[in-house]
Write a structure and sequence with these properties.
By secondary structure, this protein is α+β, with helices and mostly antiparallel strands. 38% of the residues lie in helices and 33% in strands. The chain has three helices and eight strands, in the order H-E-H-E-E-H-E-E-E-E-E. Strands 1, 2, 3, 4, 5, 6, 7 and 8 form an eight-stranded mixed beta sheet that branches. 21% of the residues are buried.
Length: 159
């Protein structure tokens, strides 16, 4: 093997090592570590911000972990997302669509990415967005009169 061929072979191996090391380092940092209490607190904060904006309290809260897959395919018992499910009573003044419009304006002003924004009937609608910190937020009219609110955290790794 010539000197040039040896240098090329060593360079190729070095590139492979660098690429594999980068992948390992990225995979390790792709899913942020959060305790269940911290993740639950963040879900609750997002839900409370929605309730405050529409001027009605949250009812029937349910928050808990469920399995998820991270950006680089991370899975396992310790990789979870947290989902909060809530109800909000119907508006005491204004319409459901006016409440959704108020929420839409707030989310756009905060730089959130709207992922669903539609009217589904007379005074009925759905509004979903991804927050700047990666939470998926959803508020939609529910039967019979109020709103359903769903907050999904990004994937977190349990400590």
């Amino acid at each position: 093997m010539t000197v040039r061929a040896r240098v090329a072979a060593v360079a190729a191996v070095a590139v492979v090592v660098v690429v594999l090391t980068s992948i390992v380092l990225l995979r390790g940092s792709a899913v942020e570590t959060k305790s269940e209490s911290e993740a639950t607190r963040l879900v609750q904060e997002h839900a409370e911000a929605i309730a405050t904006l529409v001027g009605m309290p949250l009812r029937d809260p349910s928050i808990g972990p469920y399995p998820c897959t991270g950006r680089f395919g991370e899975t396992g018992d310790d990789v979870v997302s947290y989902r909060g499910v809530y109800n909000i009573d119907p508006p005491t003044s204004g319409t459901h669509l006016q409440m959704l419009e108020r929420l839409r304006a707030d989310w756009v002003a905060k730089g959130y990415t709207l992922t669903d924004d539609r009217t589904v009937g007379a005074d009925r609608g759905v509004l979903t967005a991804t927050s700047t910190d990666g939470f998926n937020l959803d508020m939609e009219t529910a039967s019979p009169d109020g709103f359903a609110v769903f907050v999904h955290s990004p994937c977190f790794e349990r400590p």
